[in-house]
Amino acid sequence: MSLLEISGLRKSYGPVEAIRDVSVSLRDGELVCLVGPSGCGKTTLLKCAAGLLAPSGGSVTLGGEPVTAPPPNLAVVFQEYGRSLFPWLTVRRNVELPLREKKVARAERDRLVSEALSAVGLADRGDAYPWELSGGMQQRVAIARAVAYQPSVLLMDEPFAAVDAQTRAELEDLIRSIWRTFGVTILFVTHDIDEAVYLGERVVVLSGSPTVVQETLTVDLPAERDQLTTRSDPRFTELRTHVYAEIQSAKKPTPAP
Ligand SMILES: Nc1ncnc2c1ncn2[C@@H]1O[C@H](COP(=O)(O)OP(=O)(O)OP(=O)(O)O)[C@@H](O)[C@H]1O
């Protein structure tokens, strides 16, 4: 059964048609990657899915309910970790903040924060301030905050675009591990083809703007993935080459209907 349903979504900014027709459906517990050329409307699509932006047409439903404002059981992790954390709050406090707003009782809050910080490997950095941490660690804090909130859906908008390649690989593995541990449904937006194939159970390829779904691909790689084995698997190479070719043709703008 689908949990998050994006159906016939359209979005124009005044005369600029950004998204023409996108439908994506996520089953409960799925990890789906959205990949497309730069400027194709990935962020726009994600904001519409999160209830942060009203679509011009089509619909978004979460658990059968229409999404018209940010739903309580959905969390978003953005690319710019530097701007998403409060510098005057410690790591623990940053992670705890949405739980306070949700009026979670103190003991439960402490438990959820500790569990989330352990899951991202920052159990011993709770008293640090974000600016004392590296970029990759700050993004881990943002991920811990989303996880502690126990969302049923996690939307991620190019969350690793601003970190170095090694950190990025570690964070990719972290997402797979969090996904498997917590059973959260994830929609992960990236412009990185290898990342999309490495992470996803399915990859949705978007066309150039005005955007339509170019292709949806099932990633038939083993669930147990690691940077060395998976990336040297001939099937991985086949899939990424296929998606690369799709993106190249997707860069051509969609002809007018
Ligand atoms: N607030 C806005 N007002 C007008 N046009 C906008 C606005 N936001 C986005 N656009 C336009 O909509 C299109 C899609 O933008 P969006 O940021 O969603 O793409 P993206 O795929 O996330 O881009 P990138 O890969 O570069 O991050 C672009 O043509 C952009 O210029």
Automatic annotation (TrEMBL):
InterPro entries named in the record: AAA+_ATPase, ABC_transporter-like_ATP-bd, ABC_transporter-like_CS, ABC_transporter_ATP-bind, P-loop_NTPase
Record GO terms (molecular function): ATP binding
Keywords annotated in UniProt: ATP-binding, Nucleotide-binding, Transport
Ranges where the ABC transporter domain occurs: 4-233
Name used for this protein in its record: ABC transporter ATP-binding protein
High-level lineage: Bacteria, Bacillati, Actinomycetota, Actinomycetes, Cryptosporangiales
A Pfam family per the record: ABC_tran
Superkingdom, natural source: Bacteria
